[in-house]
Design goal:
Layout: H1 2-11, H2 16-29, E1 43-45, E2 48-50, E3 54-56, H3 67-72, E4 77-83, E5 96-99, E6 104-107, H4 116-123, E7 131-135, H5 144-155, E8 161-165, H6 180-191, E9 204-208, H7 214-225, E10 231-234, E11 253-256, H8 259-273, E12 280-283, H9 289-297, E13 302-305, H10 307-312, H11 315-330
Helix pairs in contact: 5-6, 6-7, 9-11
The structure holds flavin mononucleotide (FMN).
Length: about 350
Amino acid sequence: MFFYSLLRSLLFFFDPEISHRIIINYLKTIKVKKIKSYKVLQSNVFGLNFTNPIGIAAGFDKNAEVAHNLINLGFGFSEVGTVTPNPQPGNPKPRVFRLKDDEAIINRLGFNSDGFNVVKNRLKKIDNHIVGINIGANKNSRDFSDDYIKGIKFFSTTASYITINISSPNTPGLRELEVLDNLDVLLNKINDLGAEDLLIKTPILLKISPDLETDHLKYLCDKVLSSKIDGLIVSNTTLSRNSIVSNSKEDGGLSGRPLFKISTNQLKKVYKYTDGKLPLIGVGGIDSAEKAYEKIKSGASLIQLYTGLVYNGPDLIKDINKNLALLLQRDGYNNIAEAVGVEVS
Ligand SMILES: Cc1cc2nc3c(=O)[nH]c(=O)nc-3n(C[C@H](O)[C@H](O)[C@H](O)COP(=O)(O)O)c2cc1C
């Protein structure tokens, strides 16, 4: 951690996107020794065997450049993307901002992507790891839901699971897919996919927003339970600025520490509204084993993080693995699955 605090001061001199590029290029070159694994952290979710529940969230490795290197750092799985059907540049720069006093980030990248073809070719080279693909829609698409169907068909034989990201706040109109009729249209199209479209039964997850209001959230949970969706990711970034101390006026999605409470409350509601019947991935503001544990007790079978890694460095992953195993054992659990949702009444 001491070494990383020095490195972080250096990296924080640069624009966040430049620092990120430096890290991605560095990760491409390193050979990391596998970290210790803990039996208590192993689980089977959506039919996949996870060595530990900690995943790198979408957005870090948008174009599948370092997915396997991230797993070698200690992640149990990695989620590539968001990828759009056609390549697109995203929003004008600057579009990523650090809120250091909050240990947070605001981004309005707007799905900068190399596109489906390039990313699929990179994914094909990765063996023996759980790598999910997070798919999106092109900004100028005439029908967002068609882009998702295209993505499911395109990646169903290449990725370990597919995430439908309808919760990014940075593509105008995208979040409307989470609501009522638009959601029905999307889920109906997914339900209509036949065996010829899904050559292998690849789990399909939906990533949702922490800002979705209770009525809409209940509706979504109901609909999802009777659909072909296998799980939910809770949550994407928030548009709320209620919990920050920084004086930032930047538009975009907020991630990191201030998102923890909002996304964990949303996670608890989703666990309740789905009766614990659907596997959930808890994301938002995780920067310690204690917070990872809280997500699990709030209903998450797996967790993901991004901003915590930027502020705490790669030792965080080792730390969460080790201390989460200790916390579970301290509380008498033989396996992580036994602790899922225990704090949701
Ligand atoms: C710079 C940045 C880019 C992101 N890009 C994506 C993305 O392309 N797709 C997506 O589903 N989520 C994206 N996210 C959201 C993260 O996957 C995650 O849901 C969110 O940041 C909350 O987790 P955290 O607080 O651990 O960062 C991005 C987050 C950040 C900080």
